Amino acid sequence: MAYKFDYLVIGAGIAGMSFALKVADKAAGKVKVALICKTTLEEANTFLAQGGVASVTDREVDDFDKHIHDTMVAGDWLSDPEAVAKVVQGAPDGIGFLLSQGVDFDRRDDGSFDLHREGGHSEFRILHHADNTGAEIQTSLIRKVRENPDITVFERHFAVEIITQHHLGKVVTRRTPDITCYGAYVLDEATGRVETFLAKATVMATGGVGAVYTTTTNPLVATGDGIAMTYRAKGTVSDMEFIQFHPTALYNPGDRPSFLITEAMRGYGAVLRNLDGSEFMQHYDPRLSLAPRDIVARAIDSEMKQHGTDHVFLDVTHKDPDETRRHFPNIYEKCLSLGIDITRDMIPVAPAAHYLCGGIKVDANSESSIKRLYAIGECSCTGLHGGNRLASNSLIEAVVYAEAAARHSAEAIKGYDFRHDVPEWNDEGTAHPEEMVLITQSAKEVNQIMGYYVGIVRSDLRLKRAWNRLDILFEETEQLFKVSKPTRALCELRNVINVAYLIMRQAMERKESRGLHYTIDYPHS
What we know:
Elements: E1 3-10, H1 14-26, E2 33-37, H2 45-48, E3 53-54, H3 64-74, H4 81-100, E4 126-127, H5 133-147, E5 151-155, E6 157-163, E7 183-188, E8 193-204, H6 225-232, E9 237-238, E10 243-250, H7 264-268, E11 271-273, H8 293-307, E12 312-315, H9 321-327, H10 329-337, E13 347-356, E14 359-361, E15 373-375, E16 380-381, H11 394-412, H12 436-453, E17 457-458, H13 460-483, H14 488-509, E18 518-519
Parallel strand pairs: 1-2, 1-8, 2-5, 8-15, 14-16, 17-18
Antiparallel strand pairs: 3-4, 6-7, 7-8, 9-14, 10-13, 11-12, 12-13
């Protein structure tokens, strides 16, 4: 028996929950929303976001044109101007939505927002909650979701595939017109059964792809599931070569994910130094430690290679200790737990995979190339980020495009109905994977291939080597999937390989160094 919901939302970070709340509120009591979460609502990239949310707030010194220009510059002029204007101009309303959901941004004594400035921004425009803004947003939205009677949360449920004409016996290719999504096959981890979820509209909000790399700031659930599912369903995926490596993850070997040292700390005045205490950013950019992330990450990578070190230092010891502790309480406590007092000791940092600027290609309404399938948040490619995301633009993008998707789908589903001829998931002749080591070892191999060959600095030779290695892993994993009952570990491996392939292939296709994609074969383009 299939589940039937007006809306099926796959993913429960800021994008998925914002959308669910918006459509539920727009038609209170008239629609039913399923919110699929592969672990628990607390485990999302949103929860780990430290810096904040970018929005023009102080109109006396800031304006939309400045924010638009900063975004275009950071994106290396590859951003879609219409998408940039949409997000920047929609940001104040997005902040209003978050405030209405109970999000508490820090304020000054006079009641105005305590705004931060981060790399690439020309003004102070980052709203934040200490240094754990994401956790504040996530917990506020979770509270609202759990209170809403029209939203049903399915925790520990894993979407395996979206349902299209392919599952109705039709041959679907990338040239097939009007590919349509009718819902998804979803694994209930408690029972091991793959259930059928039918929906009038399906929304991908599955977050990023950081777990493709060994060193990442993302939670390890960030395996690119929505992107992989959409790609396998013949949907359009673009700009996957633009992987943002955060320059300053806490260097603590064995930690996975890596603990993020927010960019706001550099905005606050922290300085990057080599292990001998010397500054180095003056050799790379006049903006020094406040240059955009791609430049800072490459600079750190270069210094580490030149000096044969595995980290550099971030120095905030010259700032007022009480002020540092007040601004960055979580960073202070985390470092202190490792014997590092950031008011007296420099912080060891190294770059880590952090954010995907590409993803499922969507239009201004967040609709993908597959009809009735929307994508929002990090798994989507709206055109906002171009070649490189400007700091703190991502959370507000998720809210603005959640509103666009909610508005469009609320009208669109009036003409949709459920597809009643969808077959149940067929796992006849399959068995549970006997050797878990095959899955875990293959996942490690993907991580190593991506780190060595498709990292911060690339080349044609490295990318070709990645292609050959990934091809073998793809064939092995697809064969295993065909004879196995789906498990989350096996499905995640399959998705990670698909995503790694997309990053590698689209990096090969870009014959220039642009934004986050830097190749030694085209260094000056």
